Amino acid sequence: MAGMFVGVHPLAGFDKVLHYQVPEPMIADVQLGALVRVPVGRTLRLGIVGEIGAPKDFPLDKLKALAQVLHPFPALPPDLLGLARWMTGYYAAPLDGIIETMIPVAVRNGAGLKQEKQLAIGQRLSGEEFTALEKRAPQQARLYKFIEQQFRPQKKSLVLSRLELTAAVSNALVKRGVLLEATQRIERVAYVDDHSRGELVAAQPPTLNAEQLTAVAAVTARLATGKFGVSLLHGVTGSGKTEVYLHAIDTVLKAGCGVAFLVPEVALTPQTVARLRSRLEAIAPGNKCVVWHSHLSEGERLDGWLALATGEARVVVGARSAVFAPVQNLRLIVVDEEHEPAYKQDETPRYHGRDVAVMRAKLCGAVCLLGSATPSLESFHNAQVGRYQLLELKQRVDDRKLPHIDVVDMKIEVMKQRGLTTLSRKLVDAMHARLERREQTILFINRRGYSSSMLCTKCGHTEECPHCSITMTYHRSDETLRCHLCNAQRAAPTRCPACGAPEIRWRGLGTQRVEEAVRRVLPRARLERMDTDTMVKKNRFREILGDFRLGKIDVLIGTQMIGKGLDFPNVTLVGLIDADISMHIPDFRANERTFQLLVQVAGRAGRGDRAGEVVVQTFTPQAEAIQFSRHADFTGFAAAELKLRKDFNYPPYRHLIHHLFRGPNPEKLKFFAEQWAKLVEKTFGARVELRGPSPCPIEKIKDEYRWQIWYFVAGVTPVIGELSKLRSEFAWPDDLTQVIDVDPVSLM
Ligand code: ADP
Ligand code: ZN
Question: Which atom of ligand 1 is nearest to the CA of 393?
Answer without folding.
Answer: 3
